[in-house]
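so my prof wants the structure for this chain in the tokens format not the other one, which i didnt know existed until like an hour ago. anyway here's the sequence
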Amino acid sequence: MTRTAFLGMGHYVPPKVVTNDDLAKMFDTSDEWIQQRTGIKERHYIEKDGIGASDLAVPAVQMACKNAGVDVAEIDAIIFATLSPDYNFPGSGVLLGDKLGLPGVPALDVRNQCSGFLYGLQVADAWIKCGMYKRVALVGAEVHSTGIDFTDEGRDVTVLFGDGAACALLGPTDDETVGVVDVEIHADGSGAQELWLEAPASKYMPRLTHEMIDDRRVWPAMNGRQVFRWATAKMPEVSRSVLERNGVATADLDLVVPHQANKRINEFVGEKLEIPADKVVHNIQRYGNTTAASIPLALSEAIQEGRAKKGDLILMPAFGSGFTWGAALVRL
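here's what i got, hopefully its the right format
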């Protein structure tokens, strides 16, 4: 039976590094305060105006193709996961296809925020298994730095996010010892307003007003306690579900690559699942939360560093705005 293999991984972050001390010059915070609550030391921001999520995705896709030994021209489908598209419309996937020189190649945008990579992986897995496409570029890319509030009022959200992109190049294989084993995803919209960006919005006439700006409804808002509570419950729950359905014990896992939203959350999840700390990948300290890009970025780095190797069994759980959550089990 055809399985979906990870042919190659790639990632890219813009060169501008913003430390906690840099943020402390803009609003009331400190390196100690941020590290204690999130584990983040620094993050990357785009270096100038005019750089969008699709621009960051280009070198990530090129790196994935190079590592896979596949020409970019062989890509026959794009799945682009992001909460920070270049424009409201069209989607960033078509912009990426144009920048890669892929006219006519279909592009699907996925808007499931921090769980976007897992949602996209489930779609790509189905496409490849049914023989529809053979070289799918699954991308997560974000430019958060242009949409966060650098004031005291916005600090709780602003300190969390960074810019970056990553790509998994996926394709079919007949080797039953590698590939996507399972992906499980969920959503519960009752938590939508606990982590959201309210305006501008098509439900309002007009979509954007000066009052919305004055009321700070144009900045991301988060109920941190609720997000933490849901994340530390749902990530272990869905992880256990995937493992049990496939007859896998936590001891069988070589690595866990969770979404990088908060180091404390990931440590808590690891403890709940009784997974040794050295098996859990953390790179949030260097990049912050890169939302849809965070899992593939962490996996790409783990492969690059030799921490993740061919044949390894890897669990990838995520939780984010929506609320959405899920977990994937993959054999590299």
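also thought this was worth mentioning. The first strand starts at residue 3 and ends at 12.
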